[in-house]
Amino acid sequence: MTDANRKAQRERLVDHFKTAYQIVIGVAITIACTNVFGDGSIKFPPDISFWTFGIFFITVMPIFHGGDRSLDAKYLQARSDGFCARVSYLWDFYALVITAILFVKVAQAIPNPGSTPSAGLAGPTPTTPEHFYIWMAITFGFDVIVLIIDGIKSKLFKIYGRWIAFNAALAAVCLWAWSQPHFWPGLSVNRTGAIVLAFAVLRTVLDYTFGGEFMFP
Fold this sequence. Notes:
Elements: H1 3-37, H2 48-75, H3 83-108, H4 130-153, H5 157-183, H6 189-210, H7 212-215
């Protein structure tokens, strides 16, 4: 088999894994939109559904972008020869899909006080934002573990180290927001959502600022 044929087959394999990843992320975005805009109305002034949807949307896109690029960077040019290399390949794929599934849970947990619980695509709608914040914390905590493992086994630890710091910080902020009703009763639900959204926006800005060369080859 020629090198050109091997490269073409690697590209098709990477595209196969990307497609599965893209489908699950697409489901998460669909659920989020259905949960927040299912009745066709836009609430004003913004309520907690607006803030949490913003947190979800501003974070899911760079995570999706970075995951997609990581497969290209690691596997388009390099052959996966040997048992360890193939296990590493599968680990990266499953880690991305699990991250996407966690974002589905985040999307399902977006609170919509104006809606009644339903058994539709979005599932039962939580009545409080704590569900959302704890799933966000779990998602970004899991991503920190994935990045640590990938940073150890790859030569991209410099940029991975920054991502680890950014994601760990957002996970900590989400844990703070989750505990806020019990330990920080002075803040309103909407103000807490706005604070977390501000941190989420900052995380995304830093992500693209320090990872620009990796994200846009």
